[in-house]
Amino acid sequence: MSYVEVKGVAKAYGKRTIIENINVSVAKGQFISIVGASGCGKSTFLRLLLAQELPTHGEIHIDGAPMAQEPGRDHGIVFQRYSVFPHMTVIDNLVAAIAFDTNFWGRLSRARRTEERTKARKTLDRIGLGHVAGQYPADLSGGMLQRLAIAQALASDPKILLLDEPFGALDPGTKIVMHDFLQELRDETGMTVFMITHDLEEAFKLGDRVWAFDKPVWDEEDPEKNAATITYDFDARDDGIPFQTLRERTNVLQAR
Ligand SMILES: Nc1ncnc2c1ncn2[C@@H]1O[C@H](COP(=O)(O)OP(=O)(O)O)[C@@H](O)[C@H]1O
Ligand SMILES: [Mg+2]
Questions:
Q1: Has residue 132 got a pLDDT over 80?
Q2: Ligand 1 atom with the shortest distance to the CA of 224
Q3: Tens digits of residue pLDDT in 144-182
Q4: Domain boundaries, the chain
Q5: Percentage of the residues of the chain whose pLDDT score is greater than 90
Q6: 123 in ligand 1 pocket by Cβ < 6 Å?
Q7: Mutate to test the pocket of ligand 1, among 44, 224, 230 (most ligand atoms within 8 A of CB)
Q8: Between 72 and 11, whose confidence is greater?
Q9: Is 42 in the pocket of ligand 1 (CB under 6 A)?
Q10: Hey, which of 9, 16, 17, 18 would you mutate to test ligand 1's pocket, going by the most ligand atoms within 8 Å of its Cβ?
Q11: Does residue 95 surpass a pLDDT of 60?
Q12: 146 lines ligand 1 (CB under 6 A)
């Protein structure tokens, strides 16, 4: 059964259509990797899933219901650039994410605050940041910062995790550690994940499916002119498809 259903979705800014004819359905717990050239509307698509913006045409249903008009607690999002507050300690950063999620920290009772702090502490232990709880972001490595950002996104127990080039800035070793971390989290929570990446190996390693965003019609004079869509939907778990073939095809798309 499909969990996320995207039907005939298009998004335009003014007269310019960025993406169109997006028709996909995603089962609960699936991991979707998204690849494609810059400017093809990948981040725009995530913003639609996040309900930060509304589609110009079409509909998105999540768990059978039309999407809420406003970003809700069902989604967590992580960007490549760290979304942590530099002036707060690691644990305060996490507590702030929980507080933001519950709308207004000031309204929470003292008992509730203590409870949230305990919860934050447990999450930090879980993601391997317990020992730096009292330190500031400037003291953390890139991998640790990105763990913290993921922990913030997970503060509201999202059913869908949206990752916009989350590991792009990390060195290869840290990347691999983060892949394991993400895979564990996913096994534990059964979350549905959408991840944009420029790293094709990463896309196939982590994803159940790999979507390529591209413009079916290219205008050499005006590369911004035509809309993009999902031109390939690969089953990344199908060993029958030679990886090399996929790589060649998607490389063509990425090279643009
Ligand atoms: N709020 C906006 N208003 C106008 N144009 C936008 C807006 N957001 C994105 N765009 C344009 O939409 C296109 C796709 O952007 P984006 O979704 O960020 O692509 P990608 O993530 O694939 O690189 C870009 O050309 C960008 O300039
Ligand atoms: Mg983008």
A1: yes
A2: 25
A3: 888 888 888 877 677 888 899 988 888 888 888 889 988
A4: 2-74+158-255
A5: 41
A6: no
A7: 44
A8: 11
A9: yes
A10: 18
A11: yes
A12: no
Distance, CA 46 to ligand 2 centroid (Å)?
9
Residue 57: strand pairing partners:
10
Which CATH superfamily groups domain 2-74+158-255?
A: P-loop containing nucleotide triphosphate hydrolases (3.40.50.300)
Judged by its nearest atom, the ligand closest to the C-alpha of residue 40 is 1
Average pLDDT over residues 29-45: 95
Can you give the three-state secondary structure of the chain, one letter per residue? CEEEEEEEEEEEECCEEEEEEEEEEEECCCEEEEEECCCCCHHHHHHHHCCCCCCCEEEEEECCEECCCCCCCCEEEEECCCCCCCCCCHHHHHHHHHHHHCCCHHHCCHHHHHHHHHHHHHHHHHCCCHHHCCCCHHHCCHHHHHHHHHHHHHHHCCCEEEEECCCCCCCHHHHHHHHHHHHHHHHHHCCEEEEECCCHHHHHHHCCEEEEEECCCCCCCCCCCCCEEEEEEEECCCCCCCHHHHHHHHHHHHHC
Q: What is the pLDDT of residue 195?
A: 95
pLDDT at 209: 95
How high is the pLDDT of residue 254? 56
> Residue 133 has what pLDDT?
96
Task: Write the Ramachandran bin of 29: left for phi over 0, alpha for psi from -120 to 50, otherwise beta.
Answer: left
Closest atom, ligand 1, to C-alpha of 38? 23
Q: Is 39 in the pocket of ligand 1 (CB under 6 A)?
A: yes
